[in-house]
What does this fold into?
Amino acid sequence: MTTIPSTTPKAKPDEQFDDLTQQRHADLMGMWLFLATELMLFGGVFTGFVVYRYAYPEAFAEAATHLDLVLGMLNTGLLVTSSLFMALSERAVGADRKRLTLLFLLITIGMGAVFLGIKGYEWHHEYSQGLMPILGLEFVYSGQHADRAQLFFNFYYAMTGLHAMHMGVGMIWLMVMVVFTLRWRDPPRLRRQFQISGLYWAFVDVMWIFIFTLLYLLRASS
Amino acid sequence: MSDDAASSRAPESYLTHGWRWRDWLLTTDHKRVAWLYTVSITGFFFLGGIAALLIRLELMTPQGDLVSADIYNQLFTIHGVVMVWFFLIPSIPNTLGNFLLPLMIGAKDLAFPRLNLLSWYIYTLGGIFTMAAVITSGVDTGWTFYTPLSTQFTDTAVIAAIAGVFVVGFSSILTGINFIVTTHKMRAPGLTWFRLPLFVWANYATSLVMVLATPVLSATLLLLIMERLLGIGIFDPRLGGDPILFQHLFWFYSHPAVYIMILPGMGVVSELITCFSRKTVFGYHGMALSILAISVFGFLVWGHHMFVAGQSLYAGIMFSLFSFLVALPSAIKTFNWTATLYKGRLIFASPMIYALSFIGLFTIGGFTGIFLASLAVDIHVHDTYFVVAHFHYIMVGSMVTAYLGGLHFWWPKMTGRLYPEVWAKVASLALFIGFNLTFFPQYLLGYAGMPRRYQTYPEDFQILHAMSSLGAGVLAIGYLLPLGYLLWSLRWGARAPADPWRAAGLEWRTGSPPPPHNFLKPQTVSGPPYDYDTLDNPQGEAR
Amino acid sequence: MNDEVADYLPAVEKGLHLIPTQASSHAGQVDQLYYVLIAACAIILLVVVGMITWFGFRYRAGNEKADRSSRPSTRTENRVEIAVLAAMLGVFMVLFAWATTLYLNVYRGPEPAMTIDVVGKQWMWKVQHPDGTREINSLHVPADEVIQLRVTSQDVIHSFFVPAFRLKRDVVPGTEKMAWFEATEPGNYRLFCAEYCGSFHSRMLGKVVVMEKGDYQAWLTRQRSGGRLAAIGQQLFAAHGCSGCHKAQSGVRAPSLAGLYGRRVALEDGRVVMADDAYIRDSILQPKKQVVAGFEPLMPSFAGQLDEGDILPLIEYIKSLQPSGRNKEPVPMSQGVRP
It folds into this structure.
């Protein structure tokens, strides 16, 4: 962060700060606190799920087998890789490499889009199998404990839906970053923004790993 | 300073800095945002107050003769939703805190001024939206939105109301983040953690609770919205879902929220008592640490709302134990405030009267909390008027009293005007008397067996209900008077000097009202807080 | 509805008692704790108000005679704080232990003499005695017997509250909760719903009638028109037309229920389930979910027609349909009726 002096004159902090370092620290701390609130948000839903997972272990384990493990793993791989590219783009902007930054950023966004596409395909697949008990759709379930399984699928849609919403926000955010990168004004500020975007993207990634573990991996062996 | 001389040279200040609409509605100055909040909050307070008065009028008689049962249920829903979500939670942090936090730490503004303004918009628009939904569709679930009543057994606009509360949660979160970062990163040189005024400590602890607890409420409300909107039955007993889980998640936020409400009040009272005792606070470290202890223990007691709801016995016992323990730091604080008076030089100005009322009411409200933490007694008084009286002693008796005390204390700083002291004393006494008359009988009603949220009740309880309703009238005077004379003082009040109370604290080292960026030159701090000995004896005489 | 309330309540209890009548063995014990709490609260309030008054008078700004020298040092302040903390901790722990002991007495009660089912619904209390006698908005119990209440709700959360017994228990749909009491004084006592439950929450009232044992038996005999629980179930079974299909000789093809309870049942979709309480209940309310192998899914759902209070007797009746000479052991419930 310390090497490149800015090429443009506008490197002043906002008026409430004494200097840029103070502002950067404040921005980063604000972002970490925001992520803490996000963690509590997901945490609330996870806690609910875990409570029921303990109350109805067999029904939930069985219901989990109705999810597509392969697609889930593929998605996990995609998201982890996209986080890698996000981190690379942070390095690139630190090294003042505009085109490389743009490339990594676009790859990240692209992988996010593929992730959402696969997720959408999964949902559609479950819908066609009658495993979507929302909006009054009929729930067709072949295993035992159909009502508890319905509870499982309720959580499935709540959790993956919440996550997909965060993915959407993250992608819009990164697209804004694409615009900022194209303009390439005030590099210290841009670096700060990349750092914060990277934090958010990594967070969304980590949340997915939790969701993947809770929903896909805790399944009955078939 | 003569009136004429003063008004002829109105000093340059944040108030003189532009009076077009956008100078206020698009301002990022924390002092102006504080005023925006003050206006919104006052509006919501009187809306909730009108609902409360109608409730008390209905309860004058045992029959349901003023309004129908459904209207009554809507009234207490309005009262609860407005007072809890739109008045108590944002009250002190977003008005006094917003105004004072940067001033007290010698900063030019909060760390994120635009987020601060955004949080006001979220709060105000969210609040208006919620109230429109609640009032037009007649939401009648109570402010707690318990399932399955709220999900399957009411056909009112519960989704809209919950969505509104959900959105307003973001305003809390933004304020919390803003305050924490500001306190960490923007203190003046020399202002170490243990030199911070207790008001800053209190707002800091409050912000921690806001940041960590509010998202859980958001998650809970989101699940509730999904349950109603999408038919996802997470709390639906027909699928094996557990309605009590909703209560756990709800109170995981809403109990700490009680500390969001009371902690800033404790901060205010600490400032008032030291100033009008001309003496530093008794046990500063103990005071600061007990604030933190309350905010931490506050997270471990939510289950005491479910002692009779059927959580496991051992969970109940643990929650009871923690509820006793959370009372300890409060007890220390009460003792320390009182001990601060010892060997002081006491001045009974109206803010001090408010502060002393606070101590008395908080002692009663706090100790009746011990009654409720006692499992066997709680079984009897749970969901009765005893509980109603208890939390009103904390939230109205203590919190609103502290808010008014603080408003009077910092009024000269915020407006540059002095208020009429005689009227302020009358109002503070009306408040104290009216409050006790309203809520003390409710303790008696509660143990006698009167359940809460009842529109009709056995005739034998009428005498106590009538006393309570009468007191509500006196209490209303105690609230309307300040509204009147404070507004009056804006125009006709005498000009205030920079430090009318000769108080310690950085906020008094700048003009009243302060200039746009708070201080004309950077501030440094070299001594402990509340150093009234040095302040009153600048030559350093022996005390 | 208003008039009903006005006429009805005064008959239950008369007069304002700040301490409600002590009508259970537990009530007096709770009141003792309450008195001690009041005393402790009063002492602390007196100390606080006394200090404020005394200091306020003594150290008022105009009074220069007061000795303000030698204020306590920080060290002394800390010591005083710790002393106050320790004293309060001691008091609190005593209160905590006392209150918890009493709590365990009510919620983890002694061996009951009888269990009474209470079902809350908007806005009434339905009570069923062990012998099948049912009543609405009133509960008759014998004095000096340990009574266990098994409470549940049909719709929203209610709360069963009898001030004279110092007893309260939330009534939660989908679960059964237990509460215990031993009434001591014959008489009529108020029964309230304490958890807000919708429009007529404040009119969800009832009375508890405590009677001498002999009187209670006599009352039961008078009430006994329906017989035992299973007998009520039998009546319901006929009244709702169940017997039309499930009787052995009936024309419609429906599985026989004789000896069903506790048996494994093969379903149309190949699964095998245990015929327990939950299964029978589901079969009545959602018959399409688990269709017995070899039968058409003809049975309509009875979800709207039967309420929670009717299901229990029906299950009891079906349980009683065991082929003679073969008394099944009770079978453990399948996974999760209670979350």
